[in-house]
Amino acid sequence: MIIDFNQLPPEEYPAFKGGEKSLKAKMFFDGTNRILYGELIPGATIGLHTHEGNCEMIYILEGKGTVLMDGEYEDVSSGVCHYCPEGHSHSLINNSDADLKFFAVVPAQK
Questions:
Q1: DSSP bridge pairs for 76
Q2: Global pTM value
Q3: Dist. CA 34–CA 29, nearest whole Å
Q4: Cβ distance 35 to 27 under 8 Å?
Q5: Nearest in space to 101 (alpha carbons), one of 49, 58, 50, 72
Q6: Which of 59, 55, 49 is nearest to 100 (CA)?
Q7: pLDDT digits over 26-72, tens only?
């Protein structure tokens, strides 16, 4: 199966998960799994949330920012993959002066 993100319409999610500004994303959802191409402008965040029954992988395509996971801050940049296991909390923060572009996968809940 091919998912062509060039053909998916972008959507804007204001204050996504309680974050600042908004998330711009092209999202594929098959009823079970979510796969998305996302962008955060400078100062935008994905709010702190906990993964219950699933996990999330975020691969940074372009830019840099910070992940807050379980109370610890970690810098992320192009080529880095952040993994948030089930039962853990995280947030993605664009604290840079350029757009942060990423690819994320949230597999099926158990």
A1: 65
A2: 0.94
A3: 5
A4: yes
A5: 58
A6: 59
A7: 999 999 999 999 999 999 999 999 999 999 999 999 999 999 999 99
Cα gap 62→78, rounded to integer Å: 5
Q: Which candidate, 40, 84, 48, 34, places its Cα nearest to that of 64?
A: 40
Distance (Å, rounded) from C-alpha 30 to C-alpha 51?
19
Radius of gyration of the chain (CA): 13
- For the stretch 22-31, contacts whose Cβ atoms lie closer than 8 Å and that sit 24 or more positions apart, written own/partner, are 28/3
For residue 69, what are the CA distances in angstroms to 4, 6, 13, 66? Answer: 30, 31, 21, 10
The SS3 of residue 18 is helix
CB atoms within 10 A of CB 93: 21
The amino acid sitting at 19 is G
Q: Both tokens of residue 38? A: 């996302």
